[in-house]
Amino acid sequence: MEKKKDKDFKDLGPLFVKLVEIVARLRAPDGCPWDRKQTPESLKKYVLEEAYEVTEAIERKEPLLVCEEIGDLLFLLIFLAYLYEEAGVFHLSDVLTLCAEKMIRRHPHVFGERKLTAAEEVISQWQKIKEKEAREKGKKASILGDLPKNLPALQRAFRLGERAGRVGFDWENPKDLLAKVQEETGELLRALGDKDEVAIFEELGDLLFTMANLARKLGVNPEEALKAANEKFEKRFRKMEIHFKNQGRDLKEVSLSEMDAVWEEIKKGD
């Protein structure tokens, strides 16, 4: 792959147009049967999958894979915009124009006369601009903004706490949150004792929300921490499976105490 040393973006135009032309060809009457069946609703899951594949490629520190996955996601987004253009709702050019206008409007310290030097100042300014935009659209502005409902719940809890914390609605330090964790754990235990399924559901949610905010105060992204824990558990469990398989035994036939003993040995070897 050839590396470009300059910042001449003129050659990107034809390449972008080529992608749009490919989408148009796929959607043509004599195009691809699968692509012709797609709708914005059917593409939602693929957009999410591709976005996760981009983040996974970044985490794996594989630049060429990142390049490929960004391309897959970009193509899907162009495809999605094209479907709305076909329906006469908006044009792809509207997407590009609105995006450019928004980015310029939200960066007056770059494209205007106001100068900012600290990231914290930029965040504060960004929030004020978003609030102004919301009022102009007739929406009720909120410090919490409009975080996507479909965002993974743990990540959304992290972001909600982060935004509330910008105006001081926050715990002072992690120790305060540890006390809150203990409080929420006690409430969950009481709900379990009462066998109150509604309360159990609610108290477990409160505990998870508190844990997400504890992670935030510790400077840890809870989604990433849980992902790492998932991977660690999976790796150890698979090793345990192999251990007993080598003995000709199925895990269903193994006692919990035996599994625990092997699990501890695997942990020591990590």
Can you tell me about this structure?
The protein is an all-alpha fold. The chain has 3 domains: 15-105, MazG-like (Helix Hairpins, Orthogonal Bundle), CATH 1.10.287; 153-220, Helix Hairpins; 225-269, no CATH class. Helix content is 72%, strand content 0%. The chain contains 12 helices and no strands. α3 (40-59) packs antiparallel against α4 (63-86) and α8 packs across α10 (197-217). The protein is extended. 7% of the residues are buried.
In short:
This protein is mostly helical and 270 residues long. Helix content is 72%, strand content 0%.
Q: How many domain regions?
A: 3
The count of β-strands is 0
Instruction: Give the SSE string.
Output: HHHHHHHHHHHH
So what's the overall shape? extended
User: How far apart are the termini?
Assistant: 38 Å
* C-alpha-based Rg, rounded: 25 Å
CATH architecture assignment name of the largest domain: Orthogonal Bundle
Observed structural traits:
270 residues; mainly alpha; Helix Hairpins
Per-chain topology:
Elements: H1 12-27, H2 33-37, H3 40-59, H4 63-86, H5 92-105, H6 108-111, H7 119-136, H8 153-165, H9 174-194, H10 197-217, H11 222-246, H12 256-269
